[in-house]
Write the C-alpha cells for this entry.
Amino acid sequence: MKKILLCLLWVPFLFSPGLLQAQEEGARTLDALQKKYSGLKDYTVDVNVHFDVEGFKAPDMQAKLFCKPPDKMKIESKRIFFLPKEGGTFNPFMFNKEDFEVKLLERLTYEGRNVVKLKLTPKKRKLNAQDFILTVDTDRHLIREMNTSSFDGREVKALIEYGNFGDFDLPTRIELHLNVQFSESMEIRDFGPSAQPAKRVTGRVDITYSNYKVNVGLSDEIFKERDSSKLGGRP
Amino acid sequence: MRLFWLEIYKTFSRWRTYIGFGFIALVVLLTEVVMKLSAVEILNRMMRSTQKDFLIFGNVLNGWFVTAFIMNTLHIHIPFLIALVAGDIVSGEATSGTVRFLLIRPPSRVKIIAAKYVATLFYTTGLVIFLGLVCILPGLALFGSGDLIIHHFGRFGVVFIPEVEIPVRMLFAFMAAIWSMTAVASIAFLLSTLVENSIGPIIGTMAVVIVFLVIGNFPFDFFATLKPYLFTTYMVFWQRFLDDPIPWQEIVKSAAILGLHSLGLFFIAFGAYARKDIKS
C-alpha cells in the first residue's frame, strides 16, 4: 500500500516538466508577440464601426484613432463615436506575460497556419478582471482570435484580419461577437418606468481600419487634450 | 374670434397664467446650469450600462440630449401647470361672479365655451412651445449641438439620431407633446365647467393624471390589462419621434386615442355648460 501511495505522489512530478514547458512556451509566445511590435512607436488610422447589435440602433461611425503603445490612445471624431471596450482596439502590448498566468491549451492549425491557444488569467484580481483565450499564429506572431469572459457573464469574441503597413502587421478588420449580460444600475431599476430583469444581449460589431500611418512621431501632448463635458475612454 | 381674443386677454391678465412659464423657466435653466457643472457625473450615471461595453467619444451631453432629458423629467409636472389655468377658465367666472353677466350677453353658450376651450388650447400650446424654447436655445448655447443618443431606461437600448435629423424630430416631438397636453387640458376644462371654484378642477385633474400614471406603471398583471384603456399610456407618444425607426402606426394610434379623448371631453364640457343653471 505504501508503495502505491509513493508511486502516486511521484505522478505530478513526472508531468510537471511538461506543464512547466507548456507554460514557458505560452510566455515565449507572448514575448514574441511583443518583440514583433517593439518597433511600433505610434500609428494613426481611420476607423469605421458597423453595429449589428440587438437594441443598438446606430449608423456606421467613423473616427480617426491615434495610438501610442503601450497605453496611449485618442479618438478624433466630429460626431459621437462608440467603440467596443473589449477587442475594439488593437494593442499588442496589453498582454504582458508579467501580468498574466499563461497556460497553453492546445496546438492546432488555423487557416493552414500553426497556431496555439493560450489561456491568460490576470495575476491581480480586480473587480472587472477577466480571462482571455488567445489564438496566436506562431508562424507570423499574430493574434487571430481573442475570447474574453468576465465574472459577470460578459463574453466577447474577436476575429482579427491583418494587413502589412510599414513593416508591421496591423488589423484591417476586427469582427466582434458580443454576448453580454445587460442589467440596469440599481438606481434606475428602482425608479425606472418600465424596468426589466437582466437579459442577454447578442450582436456583431465590424470594425474596419484603413489609411494607416505608422511611426509618424505623435507627440504625447495630443493625448492630453480632454474636454470635461465629453465622455472619453482608455484603451 | 373677438370672443377668443377676449378670453386670451382675460387669461393672460391673471397672474396665475404666468406661474407655469415662470416655473418652467426656473426649473429648466437651473437644471441646465447644474448639468453643465456636473456634466461628467450625470453622463456616467445615465450611460453607465452602455459604458460597461463601449468606449464613448464625442459631445454626448449636447443641447438636444439635455432637451430630451428635461422633457422626460417634466412631462409629469407640466399637466399641473396646464390644469392651473385650464381648471380656472370656466369656473373662474363663477368664482369672480361674472358668469351671469357673461351668459346673458348676445353670444351663445356654444360660442362662449368654444372660445374658452380654444383659449385653453392656446395657453397649452404656448406653455409647451415655451418649454421647447427654454430647453433648446440655452441648451444649445451651453452644451453645443451634436448627435442625439437616446438611452432607454430599464432595457439595453441605444438609439442614435444624426444631428441633421434632430430639429425636425424635435419639432414633431413637441407637436406631439402639445397634442398630449391637450387631453390633460380637456380634463381640467371639463371639471372646470362642472364646479364653481378653481381648486377642484386643478386637484381633480392632477388626481386623474397621477392615479392613471401609477396604475399604468404598476408591475402587476391586473394593472397591465388596464393600461391600454388609460389615456396616460399614450401621453408619452412624443418619445416615439426619438426612436429609430419612427413607429408611425403607434404614433397615429396614440394621437387618435388622445384626440378622441380631447374631443369627447370637450363635448361633455359643452353639454354641461349648455345646461348650466345660472339662476340659483
User: Anything to note?
Assistant: The first helix of chain A runs from residue 2 to 36. The longest strand of chain A covers residues 199-214.
